[in-house]
């Protein structure tokens, strides 16, 4: 079952869903709109090797916006901290973002229950697009789990900005 | 409703979910991490067809913006739950798509899934690496077996339209 906007709002006010900062106007009928933060990551590697620690640069989206060219891929933070110990969040683009050909995740929409932190958007542009800090770029839905809950204790817990892949830690 | 990791384990014991081979360490709070199988299909633009390759020990580099077919190492399925097969955040953060907007696994299918791999930047893939995750969802309504077109394929299998 998917939560309605009203239920998201209720659960956020009780602290059962974390959306911080929370703005009532961002609640939609079945989701909550997420804004783009300002820090982003670009990898230096020509060929990514998931077994190796990646080299990357952390940058800031300038005030006048950042132009993504067709085929560009960057990681960017959400402005909000998002998570829940009671519901399963799933990340989506806003339809307006998708209509501009911009992916906000790369087949990794599912958030583990108990993971609380800023979302790392995986931005992949299929058309040239200018992005701005603060723009409403994505949305998060919340789903009811079934079964005994074991909370997330993984390597991305508590992210306070965009986090590059830590998959090499699985192999050390 | 989406099954928690603990519920997923319980349903495997009751034979309502098949994950084979299964490793406890690959259970997440609300999904299961699957591994990449050893064969890929690479599209040959001149011949206009896919050719099969085995991923060598040193890995296989995917070129950006090309589509490859892969498969899960595990047999994954359920007669009781619907499934969603996606990538993993650790690989999404490297810009690797694991499927091309076809995440839904039908109740009653049980096989090694074909993966549609698209890299947004060059990436080296290794056979057996943990690469994606599958979640299991409750059904509402009577379950019927919906066709078998792809349900029994275990190797990466191209589409028929």
UniProtKB/TrEMBL annotation, chain B:
Pfam families: DCD. GO terms for molecular function: dCTP deaminase activity. The keyword rRNA-binding does not apply. The keyword NAD does not apply. InterPro entries: dCTP_deaminase, dUTPase-like_sf. GO terms for biological process: dUTP biosynthetic process; nucleobase-containing small molecule interconversion. Keywords: Nucleotide metabolism. This is Deoxycytidine triphosphate deaminase.
């Amino acid at each position: 079952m998917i939560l309605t906007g009203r239920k998201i709002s209720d659960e956020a006010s009780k602290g059962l869903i974390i959306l911080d900062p929370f703005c009532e106007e961002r609640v939609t009928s079945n989701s909550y709109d997420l804004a783009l933060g300002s820090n982003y990551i670009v990898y230096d590697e020509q060929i990514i090797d998931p077994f190796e620690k990646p080299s990357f640069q952390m940058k800031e989206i300038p005030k006048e916006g950042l132009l993504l060219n067709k085929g560009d891929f960057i990681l960017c933070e959400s402005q909000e901290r998002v998570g829940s110990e009671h519901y399963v969040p799933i990340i989506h683009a806003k339809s307006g973002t998708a209509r501009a050909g911009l992916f906000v995740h790369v087949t990794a929409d599912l958030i583990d229950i108990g993971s609380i932190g800023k979302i790392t958007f995986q931005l992949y542009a299929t058309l040239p697009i200018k992005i701005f800090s603060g723009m409403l770029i994505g949305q998060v839905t919340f789903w009811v789990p079934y079964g005994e809950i074991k909370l997330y204790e993984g390597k991305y817990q508590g992210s306070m900005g965009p986090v590059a892949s830590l998959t090499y830690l699985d192999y050390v | 409703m989406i099954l928690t990791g603990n519920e997923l384990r319980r349903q495997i014991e009751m034979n309502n979910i098949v994950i084979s081979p299964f490793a406890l360490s690959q259970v997440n709070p609300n999904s299961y991490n699957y591994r990449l199988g050893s064969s890929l299909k690479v599209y040959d633009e001149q011949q206009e067809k896919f050719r099969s390759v085995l991923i060598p020990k040193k890995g296989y580099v995917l070129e950006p913006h090309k589509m490859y077919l892969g498969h899960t190492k595990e047999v994954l399925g359920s007669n009781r739950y619907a499934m969603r097969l996606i990538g993993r955040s650790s690989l999404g953060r490297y810009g690797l798509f694991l499927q091309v907007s076809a995440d839904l696994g039908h109740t009653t299918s049980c096989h090694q899934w074909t993966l549609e791999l698209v890299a947004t930047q060059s990436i080296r893939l290794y056979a057996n690496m943990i690469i994606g995750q599958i979640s299991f969802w409750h059904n509402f309504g009577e379950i019927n077996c919906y066709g078998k077109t792809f349900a029994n394929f275990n190797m990466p299998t191209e589409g028929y339209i």
